[in-house]
Amino acid sequence: MPATPRPATPAPRDLADLPYAHRLDVFAGELGREGDHESVHFDGDDFVDLDGGGTTFLECALSSVAVEGGRYRRARFTDVWTHQTRWVGADLAETQWTDCESGAGLLAGVELYGARLRRMVFHRCKFDSVNLRAAELRDVTFVDCLLRDVDFGGARLKGVVFPGTTLERVRFDNVTVDRADLSGAAALGIASGLDALRGATISVLQLMELAPALAELNGLRVADA
């Protein structure tokens, strides 16, 4: 049977490409708990150690925004576009992201455990020491990203793909996998949890690279004849 064709990798959009771009108003208020932001453009703003828990963002855009520290637990992001946005040390646990797109962004030391990401695309983003334990990722695409010291422990990965993405010391302990495709990854550095990736797709070359770890995992001792 012929192989099932892979879906085309989504191309990044510019701000002007957004269907709601003409409705965006420049942010001029305050960011606080339980806020409701719709059709707002956050441009060059710096948010330091704020409490934005439970805040809702609907059809918003974030350009060159810096978020340092702060708590944003259970915030909801729907149809949100971000570009060159930096999240450093922020608490985003149990947040919900739906139909969102992030380009050229940075997430460093971010807590995303228990978060729900659905139909989301990351383009050329860098993830450094990000906690995604017990998160749910459904139809999420990482395009040409760097994932370093990312922890997916106990997460559910459904329809997640990594075209051109480099994985370094990534943990997959106790993950649940459904249609996850790692075959397009540029590098597959798995620190732990290789046994939990049952059902994931990898390439032949990746299989060869992972062979020693797979042999050790299955108690096989490899010796030259």
How would you describe this protein?
It is a single chain. With 225 residues, the chain is mainly β. The protein has a single domain, classed as Pectate Lyase C-like (3 Solenoid), CATH 2.160.20. It contains one helix and 21 strands.
Key traits:
21 strands; 225 residues; Pentapeptide-BTB/POZ_domain; 13-stranded parallel sheet; Pentapeptide repeat-containing protein; mainly beta; eight-stranded parallel sheet; 5peptide_repeat
Write the layout of secondary structure elements.
Layout: E1 25-26, E2 36-38, E3 40-43, E4 46-48, E5 56-58, E6 61-63, E7 66-68, E8 76-78, E9 81-83, E10 86-88, E11 96-98, E12 101-103, E13 106-108, E14 116-123, E15 126-128, E16 136-143, E17 146-148, E18 156-158, E19 166-171, E20 176-178, E21 187-192, H1 204-217
Outline the biggest β-sheet: 13 strands, parallel
Number of helices: 1
**Could you name the CATH homologous superfamily?**
E3 ubiquitin-protein ligase SopA
| Number of strand segments | 21
Helix and strand element order? EEEEEEEEEEEEEEEEEEEEEH
CATH topology: Pectate Lyase C-like
Work out the helicity level: under 10%
The N- and C-terminal alpha carbons lie at a distance of 37 Å
Which structural category do the helix and sheet elements fall into? mainly beta
The overall number of domains is 1
Spans where pLDDT lies below 50 across 5 or more residues = none
Average the pLDDT over all residues and give the rounded result: 92
Query: Could you state the oligomeric state of the chains shown?
Result: single chain
Spatial shape: elongated
CATH class wording: Mainly Beta
Range of strand content = 35-45%
Rg (C-alpha, Å): 19 Å
Annotated CATH architecture: 3 Solenoid
Pfam family, one: Pentapeptide_4
InterPro entries: 5peptide_repeat, Pentapeptide-BTB/POZ_domain
Protein name: Pentapeptide repeat-containing protein
